[in-house]
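Lab notebook, design round three. We kept the backbone fixed and only want residue identities now. Task for the bench partner: fill in a sequence for the structure below.
Input structure tokens:
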């Protein structure tokens, strides 16, 4: 089992930036494909970005392409989500999760509002 701790969320104005971090535990972390999801009340959880275990390939949901960047540092068991040009519709709780495993952290709240 892996424990995940997300951090870096906060409140920003439209057009602002945030960098989310996901700290994982265990020696297997570097072998996981990792995902960032987001969820708002009343909506289904949405896959935002994915990164392969070696960081060589990434995927982005259409609405965040060109604005968000997923990356990882396997030496530190950490996955990042750099979010630029934030929009009010990016407001959500963001979670990281390894692909194929039902491990979730507590999430980190991102609020984009003027």
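Proposed sequence:
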């Amino acid at each position: 089992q892996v424990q995940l701790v997300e951090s870096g969320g906060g409140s920003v104005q439209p057009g602002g930036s945030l960098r989310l971090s996901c700290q994982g535990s265990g020696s297997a972390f570097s072998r996981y494909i990792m995902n960032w999801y987001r969820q708002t009340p009343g909506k289904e959880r949405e896959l935002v970005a994915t990164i392969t275990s070696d960081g060589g390939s990434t995927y982005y949901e259409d609405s965040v392409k060109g604005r968000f960047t997923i990356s990882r540092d396997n030496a530190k068991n950490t996955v990042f989500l750099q979010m630029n040009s934030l929009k009010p519709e990016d407001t959500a709780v963001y979670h990281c999760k390894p692909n194929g495993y039902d491990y979730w952290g507590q999430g980190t709240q991102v609020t984009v509002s003027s």
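Keep this in mind before ordering anything: The chain has no helices and ten strands.
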